[in-house]
Design a protein that fits this description.
This protein is about 50% helix and about 15% strand. Strands 3-2-1-4-5-6 form a six-stranded mixed β-sheet, with helices on both faces. It holds the Pfam family DUF5753. InterPro entries: Cro/C1-type_HTH, DUF5753, Lambda_DNA-bd_dom_sf.
């Protein structure tokens, strides 16, 4: 990948981890520069994700920082290689925003995704008709098809051969806000039930009679990234894109909120029945 195309989500993650390791070792940027026999600007560019790092240089820094755990070293070396990985969405050009590309990278690099949605159904659980309706209402006409096809391709994660788990909590109003023809609504409910039956997917509904904290909860996703030890980050949705939280205290706020929401939500079996009952109500039977 040309240096002009950086930083990327992966290069920023690697740079942030190298910066943390250097800081924990009590070393300055100049100490790292001396070890690599380079100037401070190169180290700064690596730590901000503006450039990659050779495997030999990475090994030198890991030795300097006292990183002895072989699994941790292996994970960082893999991440350094993946900076140059060409993902399936790379050819979509400007039709995909930078925020969406970042989200897709996090999604592809995760072993577990936990998502809370209060307004719409999670993207990985949407039917094509439902997502097309959402994009038609909220996106420029020339981007709709690209966005639909991108979201459909994302759903491959649910059927991949690698270990991947998806857990979602859907606030009940999101089910009631599905608009469109009766057949579209019925198919979306049926799809929720079918996907929820997969061993690697857990769907829970947060019922209407649950009282949330006064501050409410915005839609968010906690990604557990591949690696040992695994790294957790949180993605916050907002009207103009998304914000990534990587600092442990910030992420812990949302993992604690996830535990609270999970406890308050219906069990997977109860959630399935809730959806079935709602389907019957929609059909008038």
């Amino acid at each position: 990948m040309p240096q002009s195309e950086m930083p990327t989500m992966r290069s920023r993650r690697l740079g942030a981890e190298l910066r943390r390791l250097r800081s924990d070792a009590g070393l300055k940027v100049q100490d790292a520069a001396d070890a690599l026999e380079c100037g401070q600007p190169k180290i700064s560019q690596i730590e901000t994700g503006k450039r990659g790092i050779r495997q030999l240089d990475l090994t030198t820094l890991l030795n300097l920082y006292g990183v002895k755990d072989e699994q941790q070293r292996s994970n960082l070396k893999r991440l350094a290689r993946d900076i140059h990985k060409v993902d399936w969405w790379s050819g979509q050009g400007p039709l995909l925003s930078g925020d969406l590309r970042d989200y897709l990278t996090l999604e592809a690099d995760s072993s577990l995704i936990r998502s809370y949605e209060p307004m719409v159904l999670p993207g990985l659980l949407q039917t094509e008709a439902y997502m097309r309706q959402i994009f038609t209402a909220g996106a420029e006409a020339d981007r709709v098809e690209t966005l639909v096809q991108t979201r459909m391709r994302r759903k491959d994660l649910l059927h991949g051969t690698s270990e991947f788990r998806l857990r979602v909590i859907i606030d009940a109003p999101a089910l009631h806000r599905i608009s469109g023809p009766a057949e579209l609504i019925r198919q979306q409910f049926q799809h929720l039930i079918e996907v929820g039956n997969q061993a690697n997917v857990t769907v829970q509904i947060l019922p209407l009679n649950i009282t949330l904290p006064p501050a409410q909860y915005a839609p968010y996703t906690v990604f557990t990234l591949h690696g040992e030890p695994p790294i957790e980050v949180t993605w916050l949705e907002h009207m103009t894109g998304g914000t990534l939280l990587e600092q442990r205290p910030d992420v812990q706020v949302y993992t604690k909120a996830w535990d609270d929401l999970t406890a308050a939500a219906l069990s997977p079996a109860e959630s399935r029945q809730y959806i079935l009952d709602h389907m019957k109500g929609e059909s008038g039977s």
